[in-house]
Amino acid sequence: MQDNPTTLSTDQPAIEVKNLVKHYEKAKFNAVDDISFSVRKGEIFGLLGPNGAGKTTTIGILTTSVLPTKGIARISGIDVPSDPMAIKERIAIVPQRSNLDQSLRAREILTFHASYHGIPKAEREARADALLAELGLADRAKDIVRRYSGGMAQRLMMARALMHSPEVLFLDEPTNSLDPQSRLFLWDRIRELNAHGVTILLTTHDMDEADQLCNRIAIMDHGKILVLDTAPELKKLIPGGTRLEVRVRKPELVTAGTDHVSSSFEDVMEKLRSIPGVIKVEEGPVGENEHEQGILNIYTEDAGSLIVPVADSLASSGIEIRDLHVAHPSLEDVFIYLTGRNLR
Amino acid sequence: MSTTTPTSTEQKQASALSKLGAPRHQRSRFEMASTAFFAILRRDLTVIGREFIAFMMQVLLQPLFFLFIFGKVLPNIGVAQSNFGSLLLPGIVALTCFTAALQGVTLPLTLDLGFGREIDDRLLSPLPTSMVVLEKILFAAIRGIIGGAVIFPLGYLILGSEFSVRSDAVGLLIGVMVLTSLAGSSVGLTIGTLIKPEQIGLMFAIILTPLLFTGCTYYPWAALGSLKWFQVITLFNPLTYGAEGLRHAMVPSIHGHTLETLGLPWVFIGLTFTIVVFTAIGIQTFRRRVIS
Asked: Which residues 55-74 of B have a C-beta within 8 angstroms of A?
């Protein structure tokens, strides 16, 4: 876009991050390790990754509370660390954990927030009422927020963020602790906002959330962006496109005394790899209390036709099948495929 | 800069969210920052107004007991001189200004910077972080001045006939009260940003107690001539300058004899030095707490 100065203002990305690094003193690794991405105006952009991947630090840098060690962070073309005041006027953030002003009543939180941002009295009063109604908090408007439940606090923080019409809205794990109903409600609000032109950057470790909401997704791990694309494109990363997930009981002998993949289990996988049509076989991550179980992920173009040969092969190795299903790839699969680990 | 407004065809029935594209008000930086500054001050005054009785109890109870016991009871039973009350009153006013201001920063800061990070909303307002700090100092100083002012009528009730205050130095009186309060809030800022919330009890024991007793609250500085080493120690306590300044402004001359106090230039230098140094340190330590 630098090539074409006439369209610079309209094509200017809402968020621009280039070679961004954050190193905390005494830390062994960079919290954010040389990441680059840009978010177009009006886009919903997702940062997806497990806890500690660097998502919150990235948001911290973009929202002026963390100073970058190196690299560029811009919002609407403004350099974040050198002009935090101009940034604060344009952004809003809904954090992971409640940071509501506990000394104020719910409605006051909204009106004071708006007055910090210089919104005239009549306008902020009207907007507070409208947002409280919109987010289903009108009948609890006069409560001290200490009495609010987690879901209500989340919605109030959302309302607060919208009081000053931000250009860019940051949502850090917006639905992390919410019940399914509140989650869907919040998703609808996010989509509605976006439809009105607000650029949204959200972090999540919920694959479903990223899949449902985001135009583009960057998968982060250990401070780095592994891949960045739309959800359908990301899913194409999985070889073959479908996956046969087989949950098996590992033979006692094989698991005894070790958590590692034993050589004979490796043999079983080797045998599966020789089945025609199998592109890749991996051992999937299992839950904490399932050490006696094993999960085999078999990537292929047509998982359905492989059910019988896979079952036969396992039976001949003396492996007991507990569960077997055909999985259409989710972003979770992409993450597992890229890192060999579960998200949580 | 305004956000994109949807075209009328796309616009649904007027929901709250659809009104969000309202154009931003064009304001200068100074206007933006000062608006935020006074809105935050209004927030603090609203909160304190709501807890006014509790605030008064917290700030006044201890000084008033000191005034009653040392200024009324001890002279009455003949343990102290009868005019001690008039020497004590300025010290109590200074003490109240100083501690009310100090606590007015330190206590809220433990909530602001604690687990709930309640200050986030103010930090994300469009004003420099240093102005968020200056607001805290100003607000806490207002607390100190109110606390100190309330001592006068209550002191009149407690001391009765022993209550005597010069009425020809009101300007000086107010000036020293303002500076003493500002000194208290700037010291409170530095303390509040350096200690962890769980250390707050310890802080009151090891910082506040020595501060209370070495600040020339209960004795005039000039009278310490016989305890030279202690007289020197008191000069390291900002409260000394406040108490001595107020003594100068409040204690009337008895039989043509004026009370000897620390020189007024020293009072102003001591208080101003405290305000400047601790505000500067406090802004730095505050920044370190909120920006990583």
From this structure: none
B288 touches chain A (CB under 8 A): no
Report the range out of A61-65, A283-287, A316-320 with the highest average pLDDT. Answer: A61-65
Out of B20, B125, B127, closest to residue A165 by CB = B20
Q: In which residue are the tokens 């680059």 written?
A: A36
A163-190 CB burial, b ≥16 within 10 A, e <16:
bbbbbbbbbbbbbbebeeebbebbbebb
A197 touches chain B (CB under 8 A): yes
The number of beta carbons lying within 10 Å of the beta carbon of residue A118 is 21
The shortest C-alpha distance from B195 to chain A (Å) reads 20
**A278 contacts A314 by C-beta, under 8 angstroms:** no
Angle at the Cα of A215 (from A231 to A195), degrees rounded to 5? 150
Measured CA to CA, the distance from residue A133 to residue A128 in angstroms comes to 9
- Backbone torsions φ then ψ of A290, nearest 5 degrees: -120, 40
The reported pTM is 0.81
Best of A119, A121, A162, A196 to disrupt the B interface (most B CBs within 10 Å) is A196
The residue count for chain A: 344
Q: How far is CA A26 from CA A23, A29, A84, B72, in A?
A: 9, 9, 26, 58
DSSP character at residue A63: T
Interchain proximity A116–B121, CB inside 8 Å: yes
What does the block give as tokens for A290?
Answer: 């399932």
C-beta separation of B206 from B228 below 8 A = no
Residue of B nearest to A126 (CA): B16
What are the backbone angles phi and psi of residue B50, rounded to the nearest 5°?
A: -70, -30
Mutation site, B121, B131, B287, B289, interface A, largest A CB count within 10 A: B121
| Per-residue confidence (pLDDT) for residue A235, from 0 to 100 | 81
Neighbours of B14 (CB within 10 A): 9
The terminus-to-terminus CA distance of chain B in angstroms comes to 29
Residue A5 has pLDDT above 50, yes or no: no
Tokens of B89: 């009153």
Question: What's chain B's length in residues?
Answer: 292
ipTM: 0.83
Structure tokens at B178: 């303002």
